[in-house]
Amino acid sequence: MFKALVLEQNEDKSVRHSIQSLDEIALPDGDVRVAVAYSTINYKDGLAITGSAPVVRKFPMVPGIDLAGSVIESADPQFKAGDTVVLNGWGVGEGHWGGLAQQARLKGDWLIKLPAAFSPRQAMAIGTAGYTAMLCVQALERAGLTPDRGDILVTGAAGGVGSVAIALLANRGYRVVASTGRASEADYLKGLGAAEIIDRNELSEKGRPLGKERWAGAVDAVGSHTLANVLAQTCYGGAVAACGLAQGGDLPASVYPFILRGVSLLGVDSVMAPRQIREAAWTALASELDTSKLDSMTAEIPLGEAAVVAGNIVRGQVRGRVVVNVNR
């Protein structure tokens, strides 16, 4: 038997949650069974657990798009009992039972071996948010951005993606401008490496199709008017990596930044990225991410508090990263 956070759907389509004890035979199909040590709460987990968006595709569902733990048994030759593994995405926690449980059964192709530089707890302090941040940084540099090009903006800066992105960019020598709606987090953001803090209200309302050139590039986890304004204020030949929709999934922008300034909009997907891309991102994280900064942005909760934190993250009340110790 193992404990899990289980989501079920009410007749009115609302979602209810409970901690349940389940038998191993209840686990979905897969060729690797994992003893989960830690999971985490990402924005998508918040949407799933609160029912704020139709993230979950079937019920009952164990949420949690991330997990780290050790292999119990494997029919996949890539893994053996005792291997420490990490999972990010692949529709887990949406269409396949996820990481907010003490056990998971998964497809081996979804897993990678955890770099020795990280413990399972640190892996979940990174989670999909931090892994996505690295994908964004790598995308910007493939587009030709270098520290001497100018400032790099990070929106949603106090969130998970934003926090890790600031730390990574600062470590690579960029001058980082952090956009946040929480002025009280200025010291936290500067501690991660931000050189300047701006109020998100500068970007969150309807703006001009083309504005003053302010930054060479950006990591945007917000979308909607914010992303439109970021594009409108990006310098000639700059690039913006878009990976989230905290403000909304729309993009009320014009073509002017693209055709008059040669700005590139880089879509970053972390859910279905192939193994080679995942391993490259995790290898880079292992060599670059300052674990002391990672610790400073991380809080730990027991499984029983996951639903409360899920509501908080949807309301924009969570700073940095939250790891879930599923065995507490």
Could you characterize the architecture of this molecule?
With 328 residues, the protein is α/β, with parallel strands linked by helices. The protein folds into 2 domains: 2-114 and 297-325, Quinone Oxidoreductase, Chain A, domain 1; 127-267, NAD(P)-binding Rossmann-like Domain (Rossmann fold, 3-Layer(aba) Sandwich), CATH 3.40.50. Helices cover 30% and strands 27% of the residues. It is built from 10 helices and 15 strands. The strands form 3 sheets. Strands 3, 4, 5, 6, 7, 14 and 15 form a 7-stranded mixed sheet that branches. A 6-stranded parallel sheet has the order 10-9-8-11-12-13, sandwiched between helices. A two-stranded antiparallel sheet has the order 1-2. β8, α3 (160-171) and β9 form a beta-alpha-beta unit. The longest helix is centred in the middle third of the chain and has 23 residues, at 120-142. The protein is globular and about 60 Å long. The model has no long low-confidence stretch (mean pLDDT 96).
